[in-house]
Amino acid sequence: MTRVRAGQECPTAGDGVRRTGGVWGVGPGAEYRRIWTGNAASNLADGLTFVALPLLAADVTDDPAAVAGLPLAYTVPRILAVLGAGVLIDRADRRALLHLSNFCRAAVFGALTALVATGHVTLASLYAVSVVMGLAETLSDNTVFAVLPRAVPEDGLDRANARLTGAQLIIDEFLGPPLGGLLFAAAAFAPPGLTALAFLAAGISFFRLRGDYGHPPGAARPAGVLADIRAGAAWTWRHGIVRTTVVIGALASVGYMIPFSYLVLYARDVLGLGPTGYGVLLSASALGGLAGAWGAGRLRARLGYGRAIVAALALGCLAFTAVALTTRLAVVAVALAAYIGHAALWNVLASSVRQKVTPDALRGRVIATTRLLSFCGLALGSLLGGRLAETLGLRAPFLVAAGIFAVAVGVALAGLRHFRAWEDARAPGVKETPGTGGGA
Description:
It is a single chain. Helix content is about 80%, strand content about 0%. It has about 450 residues and is mainly alpha-helical.
């Protein structure tokens, strides 16, 4: 999500940038507010969908495998399309990609609302909606992080990413799912109907962007989709900072999904929680994420990006270790909150630093490469989680996950030299070439 030096004017930030002291010195600008609003509206729609689609499927069929196939129909297209989406983001007008992808989702859910209201919804239609959701969400989410550096001065990226992360946590964890359940209980067509309106609001907000988000001037001409993908992947691997964060992201995805893939069973059989208690546990843990998002910029200002990332990963490792070593509900709740806090810290720090070192013309492909490895890590972690729980019991996999985070800490420590070199080059009085630093 790279850009101008800290404290400098952002030349393509549109009307959202306040020219005195940076936008975050005097409050967010209009351009960033449009991005935040569009992203928040789409997150609300995602939260509603998370609950509504499985409930609709359960009304259509009693086949557990058919219902369980919906997440697969959503995930597989994301994995297959993410690299191509990265190329598209680097070639097309990013503002258009944002509003069109959300208008498309609004139309799809509008059609689904009509099908539900008239009693014509089928399992095939729900699968089709899941596929479209996966493709459109991949394009929209990746584009948001690609446009952000053009809308926000460099010294505001930490806080901008933190506010996006905080809003996502609040909406996805506290608002969207319970609202979706309540609406479904009132009328089955209500959740997809509100989802359509939320995506429509997101599209309108993105449509109102006023900055220049077209193909970067001076960028190399496209050399073919496969060649562009290879160029993005090669740059990602050559750049020391980006390579470090991508490897960490893949490891963290595996470590996260190992215990979270069966967490509901752990909560029931180890902690003795019912469905309500499990929901409360998840909501309480999300509070840690809000604290992590709030503190990311402060931690980075004190330690720098490299050491702050090491500290965040160490927190994740310690949190999973604590869960593995106790069955006390209060300790587990605090540890899970610390873990989600680490995740928010990591997401804000990694997103901001990648935005700052990646040339604009490569940003979509770098994000896509990062997401692809994260998606694969989530799939691997889910597979390992079930197998480890069957073999070792419900507590030991937390220690395995903690070990993976310990490896991630080692990767971060090994990459500190790249962060130091880049941050030293950005020190006052040192001339910097944008998009450089942290090389192999």
